[in-house]
């Protein structure tokens, strides 16, 4: 079976973020398919938080990472509480709350 390397990289990022959430005491549920506005649901002390995961890129070799939203209108405050990035080059997870959300968990 031939796999899309971008899709495989994204799935690996989702797993890394899920592991980070679990390591921080969260329960994690995963969506099936690729058309949802969020990838994971983190249960943080009984509060459900919708997490959109992206593989992070580096800025011209600098120690900065960014995530790119190809369709930002898909990710409104009702659909996403937190954006999480996984920086492959440093094996690190980071998160940014949705601008209209007060959610935080990492």
Write up this protein.
With 106 residues, this protein is α+β, with helices and mostly antiparallel strands. The chain has one helix at residues 5-23, and strands at residues 27-30, 40-44, 47-55, 57-58, 65-66, 82-87, 92-97. A five-stranded mixed beta sheet has the order 1-2-3-6-7. A two-stranded antiparallel ribbon has the order 4-5. The longest helix has 19 residues, at 5-23. The protein is globular, with a radius of gyration of 13 Å.
Brief sketch in words of this structure:
With 106 residues, this protein is of the alpha+beta class.
Q: How many DSSP H or I helices?
A: 1
- Fraction of residues in helix: 10-25%
The main β sheet shows up as: 5 strands, mixed
| Rg value | 13 Å
Which descriptor suits the 3D outline? globular
Instruction: Kindly report the average pLDDT value.
Output: 83
Structural class by SSE content = alpha+beta
Strand coverage percent: 25-35%
Strand elements, count = 7
N-to-C CA distance: 35 Å
Query: Which stretches are low in confidence, meaning pLDDT under 50 for 5 or more residues running?
Result: none
Spatial sequence of strands, sheet with the most strands: 1-2-3-6-7
């Amino acid at each position: 079976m031939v796999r899309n390397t971008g899709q495989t990289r994204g799935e690996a990022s989702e797993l890394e973020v899920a592991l980070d959430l679990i390591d921080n005491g969260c329960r994690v549920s995963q969506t099936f398919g690729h058309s949802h506005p969020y990838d994971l649901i983190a249960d943080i002390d009984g509060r459900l938080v919708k997490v959109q995961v992206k593989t992070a890129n580096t800025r011209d070799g600098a120690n900065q990472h960014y995530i790119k939203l190809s369709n930002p209108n898909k990710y409104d405050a009702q659909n996403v509480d937190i954006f999480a990035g996984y920086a492959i080059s440093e094996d690190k997870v980071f998160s940014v709350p949705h601008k209209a959300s007060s959610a935080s968990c990492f």
